[in-house]
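Hi there, hope your week has been kind to you so far. For a while now I've been wondering how a particular protein folds. I'm sending you its amino acid sequence along with the backbone structure tokens. Could you read through the record and tell me how the tokens relate to the sequence? Take your time with it, there's no hurry, and the full record follows here.
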Amino acid sequence: MVLSNAPVQARPVLATVYDGWFHGRPVYCGGGSYDHHGISAAHPWLPCGTRVRVSYKGRALIVPITDRCECNSIDLSAGAARRLGVPVDGVATVSISY
């Protein structure tokens, strides 16, 4: 899949939140480990390092893709979820653009 440099219009997706169990474990994109309190996300196919604008109920945050997930949406770190107001123990519909 080839992605252009043109931004993709925001679209709604489901967001889940990484479990704290993954804290300190290596991430798929290399160069570090998952920080449960940091700002990061996992995505099934966006390239590592892609910066995604995630919006939820009037709040927005730029989140780097640092890992892969077997999800159909985006998996946020708890730190990113808290900054956005996304329930850390649930699922929410967010808007993403990249």
Remarks:
- The two ends are 15 Å apart (CA to CA).
